Amino acid sequence: MQLSSFAISIAIANIALVSADASNYWKAFTSQIDPKNITVPSIPATTSLNPTTECTYYNPDESLIVINATEWPSIWDVATSNNMDTSPEFLALYDSLDWANAPNISVRKLTSDGGLDFTGYDSSADPDCWWSASVCVHPKLADVSADIINCPEPETWGLTYDDGPNCSHNAFYDYLQEKKLTASMFYIGSNVLDWPYGAMRGVLDGHHIASHTWSHHYTTTLTNKEVLAEFYYTQKAIKLATGLTPRYWRPPYGDIDDRVRWIATQLGLTAVIWNLDTDDWAAGVTTTIEAVKQTYDDYVEMGTNGTFATSGNIVLTHEINNNTMDLAIDYLPKILSAYKQVIDVATCYNISYPYFEDIEWTNVLNASTAAAAASSVASSSVAASGSSSASAAAGTVTAAGAQINQSATSGASQLLPSALFTLVLAAVALL
């Protein structure tokens, strides 16, 4: 019996070692969720509009989601916690990267009050394209994905929300659904594991799901292993809860440099930043709600005064708490009135494949024939390489209901190579 268990363990370890490499790491992830056919379980947490009821913890239905705490970092702790940096699946991925090619950029430090320490860094020369120091979004290194910072379409509001899935977001998501709005939702891995049905709803409602790291730390202050783990376990969590693995992510606080970009690029991840920041998270915390409303008012006015006559924006907003979601509901009618398009990032860039799975995003720009052809070429490039920097196409935008289609011939949902599956069967036969 001990020999049989050992053989099975070796077989499973081999699966992880083969599957978790820099290009195919996502294929080792498992999920019982079909993103094309999601039904969110009807329980008080998913149907109530009372925040206390919504935020009552639940154990997910094991026919949908099984969470084994030994396979995950500690919630809200750096993703190497709970010995995840020594797990076979993580070490297989870590060892598969050519760290000799990683940029020699120091790990940043924090000040005593928890902010970033810029001491000694030349922000004028900005050798590391450190956004926090210089708002740099064009990497100084070759073969590193450039950041997305705005929607290229004129008079367009790029709709994005960070820090979800929030347990009390039912009314907010209901409102977005009522208005037929889809947003880019940057989900925190810890939140996905805590509130997986919330992530399922994000996909069900047609939102563009992206990563926001596991624990929301300043990524430039983390070691290479910690950065890799923050990406890896967030990807794994989103896949578990939604059946999808994102190609896009947003650094917490916008904190990114070329070392972090390099690691993200190895995983096929492209950063999405912003060019307008509402500071909505600070309402009632470090600033007044009135000050945040004034910021919103200023951004609404930009939709009609010509500020975005030649290109659009991407706006940083949050589903972090009821204040931020209430502000969104209050201002979205004004935003819709002021801007020609209010759309998610995948749509404004005509990204056909925002996930690693062979699932097509069909909420795309309704452009001219020439622009649509250009978009098709760019989207094919994204699907093949994971790079998004060339995926924008010009044209007139018509926002439509987001859908996801999967190619009938897709092999992306195959989790295990057949030879490895045979190895598992052979091990089981020893029982």
Automatic annotation (TrEMBL):
EC number from the UniProt entry: 3.5.1.41
Annotated catalysed reactions: [(1->4)-N-acetyl-beta-D-glucosaminyl](n) + n H2O = chitosan + n acetate
Topology within the bilayer: Lipid-anchor; GPI-anchor
Source superkingdom: Eukaryota
UniProt-listed SUPFAM superfamilies: Glycoside hydrolase/deacetylase
Keyword Phosphoprotein: no
Family statement: Belongs to the polysaccharide deacetylase family.
UniProt xrefs under Pfam families: Polysacc_deac_1 (PF01522)
Signal peptide: 1-22
Cell cycle among keywords: no
Needed co-factor(s): Co(2+)
Gene Ontology CC: one annotated term: side of membrane
Locations listed in the record: Cell membrane; Secreted, Cell wall
Primary enzyme class: hydrolase
Main location: membrane
Record-given protein name: chitin deacetylase
